[in-house]
Amino acid sequence: MVSLLAILLAVAACPLDATPEDYEGKTVAAIHFQPQAQPLSATETNRITGQLAGRPFTRAAVRDMILQLYATGRYDDLEVDAALDNGQVILTVRTRQNWFISRVAVEGVEEPPNREQLVNATRLELGALYSGESLVEAIRGLEEALRGNGYYHPRIQPLVERYPNYDEMHILFLVHPGPRAYFARPVLAGNLKLSESRIVRATHWKRWWGLLGWQKLTESRLQQAVERVRQTYQKNDFLLARVSLTNLDFDPDLNRATPALQIEAGPKVRVTASGAKLSGGRLKELVPVYQEQSVDQDLLIEGRRKMENHFQSKGHFDAQVSFDRKNISAAEQAIEYSVDLGGRYRVAHVAISGNAYFDVFTIRERMSILSAGRVYNRNGRFSEDLLGRDKAAIEELYNGSGFRDVRVESRVEKNYRGHPRDVAVYLDVKEGEQWFVNSLELSGVDLRLYPAVKAILTSTEGQPYSTLTMSADRDNILNLYFDNGYPDATLEILSTPSAIPRRMDVKYVVTEGRRLFVRDVQVNGLKSTRPGLVRTRITLVPDEPLSYSSMVFSQRRLYDLGIFAKVDMGLQNPGGSTREKRVLYQMEDASRY
After folding, report:
1. Last-in-domain residue among 466, 493, 510
2. How many Cα atoms are found within 13 Å in the side-chain-facing hemisphere of 117?
3. Distance (Å, rounded) from C-alpha 372 to C-alpha 390?
4. Based on the domain organization, do 494 and 556 belong to the same domain?
5. Does the model's pTM come out above 0.85?
6. Amino acid 592: pLDDT
7. What is the mean pLDDT of the chain?
């Protein structure tokens, strides 16, 4: 927090015979910080205090300085004292700094959960601000993760180690988990329709069919059991079955947890297909009611469409599928798909016309429809779904070269050249007029980056006008800015028709935002690895612009060494207004054999 007195008066301690007005207009001779060692770099401190040092004192100027210091995110409290010395003002800024998390470790727990899951449960992010409240929340998250894995009475001891040179906090949670709880026989409620013994058997909570008692409680066993019970119901045609874990009651005397499952089996739903051969696995793949666990009209229609495309791709181009939904009783439904395959055809010919700008070979590269071959694809490949995709692909190809109004029309001819089972597919391209870029203006670009931005543009004056190339320009320009320390850069594209026919005036407006630099790189967690080996893999350089791609590239190079199980990276104080950011890498050695 910022001291209220400092904000309102900008003078926290004045001589008894002086008032704030006595300082107004007098030159600020010096600004001192207590303690002398400050979390800000000298460059950052001089940038903020330089607006006041050597200039006339005003309460507004001091207030602005305090707000800027606080906005850096480095200070928990700020207070300013003022004193007069030979008619000049001496300011003393008393500070209490913030601390940031640079390493989190959890030890003492037998897997599961593993160390990474436990660290994630603390919700303490690398480089984030440390506070007492965040530590309490971290312990609560650990307790929840341990409880979900059968440790109901853990003792957690946080050990906090401060590193003043880097404003860092290393936090180690020592956990004494106690014994892991075992499963007890579950309590089953609802409309089961299957025997309890079968449901319990599906959970796999028993060891060797109960001969060796019950399994130890873990979160994965708990969740997998619920899914296995649901799959058991699906295998018995209860597609609408709902299985949920409603409670997990722990008995401390027996060290056992009793799961409570609420099961609503619903009606049996039998899905069959007639008129064509379909395996059970293929039927489940094509009809989405199995995946969605719902039987509604939209899903049944989607299943019909997928079946038609499936058979059409096999050469039955006239395949028609219909379905009938029947309620046999309150406890049973039947869904029957009827397939009329029709004849089996061969794609004898695929013709493309109307294309003047692109040759046939370029267009065919983007098509999925194929004419029949002599050895492979004896029937060719065709379906209505593939035809729609091919038309969209051709239109996208033309859009990328400035043909804004392109259309592709199609026609399917049967009995091609008198052969009843031969089919010809005709695609007619209506290209329309081609549009070009009349002018391209760059606005808001840093002059130092202007040549680099200009060099990566794909949309230039006289080139075809295309939203696809402009989208590529957006990605390229923003990536260039991100790699040069502008994490908040944005780009707006403005396009207006030119006075010249079939011409567009394009303007790229860049908002750069703040620029960040690398203050230094801090590596933590090394145990048996030499720091020099790691440093040679990190491409970030202090005082250079902060590049996110370099951060990721360095992380990838560290993983490529094959000696680390985990490499986390982050920025210290990411939300602060400071221009110089400390880059953090947290390493975890891989297990040795």
Report:
1. 510
2. 15
3. 17
4. no
5. no
6. 67
7. 91
